[in-house]
Amino acid sequence: MRISTSQIFDSGARGIGRNQVDLFKLQNQLSTGRKVLTPEDDPIASAQALVLTQSKSVSAQFLKNQSDAQGKLGLVEAKVASVGDLLQSVRERLVQAGSTTLTNSDRSYIKEELEARFSELMGIANAQDGEGNYMFSGYQGAVRPFSAIATGASYQGDDGQRFLQVAASRQMATNVTGNDLFESIRNGNGSFVTSAVTTGTGAPVNTGSGVIDQGSVTDPALISTAMATYPGGVQIQFSVVGGVTSYQLFDNPAGTTAYTAPQTFTPGQSIKLERTTAPASDFGASVVIEGSPANGDTFTIKPSTNQSMFASLRNAINTLTTGIGGSYTSTEYSNRLAESLGDIDQALENVNKIRSTVGSNLKELDSLTNADEDLQLQYSSSISSLQDLDYAQAITEMSKKQLQLEAAQLSFKQVSQLSLFNIL
Amino acid sequence: MSTGIYSIGVSGLAAAQLGLLATEHNVVNANTPGYTRQRTVQATNIAINTGAGALGQGVHVQTIERMYDRYLTAQVNSAQTTLSGIESYYTQIKQIDNLLADPSAGLTPALQDFFSGVQQVASNPSLLSARESMISSSTTLVNRFQSISLRLDEMAEEVNGKIQDAVTSVNSYASQIADLNQRIIISEGTYGQPANDLLDQRDQLINDLNKLIKVTTSTNSNGSFNVFIGTGQQLVIGNQAMIMTASASSADPGKIAVGLQTAAGGSMELPENLVTGGELGGLLSFRSQTLERATNELGRIAASVALTFNAQHALGMDLQGNANGSAGFNADYFNVANFTPTVSANTHNSGNLLVTSQLIDPPPFGTELNDGNFYTNLTTSDYRLVFNGGTSYTLTRLSDNTNFALTATPPGTLTQASEGISITLGTGAATAGDSYLIQPTQNAAKNISLNPVIAADARAIAAAVPFRTSATATNLGTGAISAGKTVPGFSTDPGFNVANLASNITVTFSGTPAAGTLSFAGLPATAQIIVKLPGQPESTTAAVPPIAYQQGMTVSVAGMSFTFTGQPVANDTFTLARNTAATADGRNALALGQLQTKNTMSGAKATFQGAYAEMVASNGIKTRELKVTGEAQQAVLDQAQASRDALSGVNLDEEAANMIRFQQAYQASAKLLEVGKTLFDTVLQLG
Questions:
Q1: Exposed (0-12), middle (13-18) or buried (19+): which is A418, by Cβ within 10 Å?
Q2: pLDDT confidence of residue B542
Q3: Mutate to test the interface with A, among B38, B120, B651 (most CBs of A within 10 A)
Q4: What tens digit of pLDDT does each residue of B58-67 get?
Q5: B11 SS3 class
Q6: Residue B384 above 70 pLDDT?
Q7: Do A228 and B476 touch (CB under 8 A)?
Q8: Tens-place pLDDT, residues B630-670
Q9: Which pLDDT score, from 0 to 100, does residue B489 have?
Q10: Which of A102, B233, B486, B597 suits a disulfide with A106, CB 3.0-4.6 Å?
């Protein structure tokens, strides 16, 4: 084999050059700490890293949204809790007001206290968050949601839920609307409202001492169907014939279509709500009437409607204001107070329901945050393993390349000095 | 032994002297590029036949030969042209690779900041500072699109410039080769001996030419070379050189195409696939396979971001309560006025039909009642529209030559929804065979900008949804209505317009729970009701008759979509109302934010980030491929060069030995003369 002098020089220079390129790249990697300097070094890894970077930033955004949501819901939770406390104390006062030993002036003290509670509730309902938005006005953040009127309060907000994207496929409402918290409260026991016929001027008023309770539901599905089928509700009519009190269920409000045959009444007995005439149906509920209803006394059972918490409170205050001996008999006073108590219980239940929804949302946020924090770590370590340099390996490689370069330089020096012309 | 002793000695002297001269020529040209070592070819002179036998008459030099093998040289040239092509491609693509790689300058951080800005507005729709921050991150995104696009445009200009420079060099080499051909013909014709150094120079020029473009050669009987490019297009014939041209392409005036000058002085454009190898081949491949694709891909992302964002934004309501139909409403968040695809009529067209093109509105995901978000069908390809005569047009997607047959009579519109573009045929008439180049996304990244009104007033961001729903407080049933969202208008359905909701729309439930119906009061006359029952396809009915109620049903009227749950009872009502004073509503901003993670591109198959990552990956893969094949090709070239050098290169040690050899031969021949003189003197002394 023959070799030309230029080949010796060319290959020597090329070898040194190649080693220098490798060293330069290693040096760059070491100084940046990145394995992949440009996509060329590992195209798939760099594309993956880009996608992971986005996933990481999206997850970071979710974390931020979760913390926002947590802040907002935390504030809502605190307000809802104070509504609950307030209702609890209202309830205690109402129970106290039911005591027969109280005088009307005692009741007026309780009434004063309830007035104060009413204002307090109004304050909570018109609370603003840190950004100056009303918390309970739905979408209309700048609109004051509640203002007091004679029958309670009027709501100027809407049903708007302020959502935040807290996970890829989860939007969480970070507010509770005034409607949900204060307005849309099922009165009565939530399914139906019992009342003695006491309302309205000129209407027949019960003369007996019968007091109806709120009723109890044994089968929610049946009562729900029944209330939808009979939106007017039913009425229980009493008749006293020859000292024997009996009751019968009729349609409401006409009271002309009999739903059951007359049955003998024993005070405190459970009266089953049903229709035995065609089409027969079981309502899945019953009521208890204490005391002795007089002949012609009527009690109605109507489907629950939504009643504002403010209206319930206002009703209670009005009942206390009138007191016994005014236009109310003691029975009517008791019936009205029982109704108010029922309404406040419903309001409390509604508050508790919302508290538990908010609570479970907060809990969900906690677990989402935990998951996303884990994900952050996961993404970081994935991105790192795609992009970051293994220093130990790189430094070893560096020493190796250094050695190679030195060898190449040295051998080139030796070989290039060999020339016959030096000897001749 | 009369004069023989002198003449043989002298012939030896002459031969040794020529040998020494050749050696010296080799030594001094050891580093001359393209030099082929030379050596003398010696032979004996014709012998004189005598009675004592044939008497040798000394030596002579037949010729000075080049240690040359044309196959080895051809191998070097072929390896060289491939390597030069790869290297010039690599040099260019490496710039894009570096541009995309930069973690702070790439598109990724800008895109992420942009969507963070959207999310901030979704979280705090009433905060002006959040809105300003969204405007600011949008401006950053727009600037990033523009700056990357600008850099790519600069590269396109650079490629144009380099092509022109390379063509100038090719012409220079071609004329030098033609000139050398002429000199070789004269030299060899006159002396009958090879013109070694001229041949070397010509070989070197062929090698240089191969660095610019792949050429093939053939040898004529008079020793001249013919040089061809492509599939046999003549560049040099004997002593005649053709002229290569670099001028604006007939299909796309923005790029420089390579051609050959015709006899009439015009230019015949060479198809790009004929220009292979060398710097020119590398530049053309880079431009068509990488640069144009990257420009289009970036434009496609920009256009998709803008179109889908605008489509969703148009469904919203701004902080001042303006929505579609209000005088002050700004439907477009990004300014898309400049997004018109570039249409270039081929300069060879004989008709004068005016053709323009538009990007079509992005379709919504799935059917109308599904997510309100949108996607685009745009591709990274350019298109060619050819008129076939009559009403027939063929649209060709140039990336894979897929054809779409379209018909229209001008003035008319051709729509190809699967490609996301429509084409308007304007005034004038086309002649069969006329063609137009359509580049839908090429300029999108360059032209993207924010709607100036929104940029100046952040309140104009449509973060809210223009209507709200409510269930009436006196309802007795458990029926509930969802918050609702605006959806795009559909067939004859008018879509959301504030005029359609001038007064509230009331939905009333009637009948029994088992057989209930919903009736609508306050609907615009043309409105249709679109109903989707759970797990079933949508159906459309006219507005007037009541529709059957089912729990979980989604209903859309006049561009408003909402879902019912629970069981209403007779006379329960629900209301759709204008969402006035809705400063805390961020529903539309949430929908805008969802665009980040939805498959909004490539016909609902890729996210914005995914498309960008794919672009980075495909560039990276190509760069890496070029680097690896470049290294392999360098090895091939080294090998070919080594084989050639092993034969043709100068080895100084060898020349040193030859020098000694010829020196000694010279000394020996001189000694012969001295011996002859001594012999002659001896004879003279005898006398």
A1: exposed
A2: 62
A3: B651
A4: 999 999 999 9
A5: helix
A6: yes
A7: yes
A8: 999 999 999 999 999 999 999 999 999 999 999 999 999 99
A9: 65
A10: A102
Residues A116-130: what's their mean pLDDT? Answer: 94
H-state helical runs in A158-299: 178, 220-229
Global pTM value: 0.87
Chain B residues with CB under 8 Å of A46 CB are 101, 616-617, 620
pLDDT in tens, A52-81: 888 899 999 999 999 999 999 999 999 999
Q: Which of B123, B473, B577 sits opposite A306 (nearest CB)?
A: B473
Contact predicate B530/B556, CB 8 Å: yes
CB contact under 8 A, B97 and A40: yes
Query: What's the pLDDT at A200?
Result: 44
Which tens digit of pLDDT belongs to each residue from B173-220? 999 999 999 999 999 999 889 999 999 999 999 999 999 999 999 999
Q: Is A197 helix (H, G, I), strand (E, B) or coil?
A: coil
The residues pairing with A173 across neighbouring beta strands, listed in sequence order, are A163
In chain B, positions 513-532, which contact chain A (CB-CB < 8 Å)? 513
Residues 6+ apart with CB under 8 A from A289: A210, A211, A212, A213, A236, A247, A265, A267, A268, A269, A271, A299
Judging contacts by C-beta atoms under 8 Å, the chain B residues touching residue A64 are 119
Minimal Cα–Cα distance from A179 to chain B, Å? 8
Q: Which of A133, A134, A162 to substitute to test the interface with B, most B CBs within 10 Å?
A: A162
Question: What values do phi and psi take at A329, rounded to 5?
Answer: -80, 170
pLDDT value of position A288: 92
Q: Judge: A225–B464 Cβ closer than 8 Å, yes or no.
A: no
DSSP bridge pairs for B395: B385, B404
The domain of B406 spans 342-440
Q: Which of B101, B126, B464 sits opposite A46 (nearest CB)?
A: B101
Band of pLDDT at residue A363, cut at 50, 70 and 90: very high
* Contact (Cβ atoms closer than 8 angstroms) between residue A260 and residue A248: yes
Interface contact flag, B616 A39, Cβ < 8 Å = yes
Task: Choose one of B532, B554, B578: the last residue of a domain.
Answer: B578
Which of 544-603 (B) contact A at CB < 8 A?
567, 569-571, 577, 579-587, 590, 593-594, 596-597
Residue B108 maps to a domain: no
Residue holding tokens 């002579």? B60
Distance CA B241, CA A254 (A): 115
Which residues of chain A lie closer than 8 angstroms to B512, CB-CB? Answer: 228-229
Position B366 confidence tier, pLDDT thresholds 50, 70, 90:
low
Q: Does residue B128 belong to the interface with chain A, where contact is any CB pair within 8 Å?
A: no
Residue B449: the pLDDT is 93
Instruction: Tell me the CB-side half-sphere exposure of residue B363, using CA atoms within 13 A.
Output: 16
B2 vs B371, residue with greater confidence: B371
pLDDT tops 60 at residue B28: yes
Give Cβ neighbours of residue B415 (< 8 Å, ≥ 6 apart). B360, B406, B421, B422, B423
Same domain? For B490 and B540 the reply is yes
pLDDT, tens digit, 9 for 90 and up, residues B298-317: 999 999 999 999 999 999 99
Q: Please name the residue of chain A whose CA is at the shortest distance from the CA of residue B606.
A: A51
Query: Which of A6, A46, A231 has the CB atom closest to B617's CB atom?
Result: A46
Q: Is the peptide bond before A267 cis (omega within 30 degrees of 0)?
A: no
Confidence of residue A203 (pLDDT cuts 50, 70, 90): very low
Q: Does domain A34-187+323-388 have CATH number 3.40.50.300?
A: no
In three-state secondary structure terms, B626 is: helix
Residues 145-164 of B with CB under 8 A from A: none
Q: In terms of domains, do B473 and B546 share one?
A: yes
The domain limits of chain A are: 34-187+323-388, 193-304
Which chain B residues are Cβ-neighbours of A152 within 8 angstroms? none
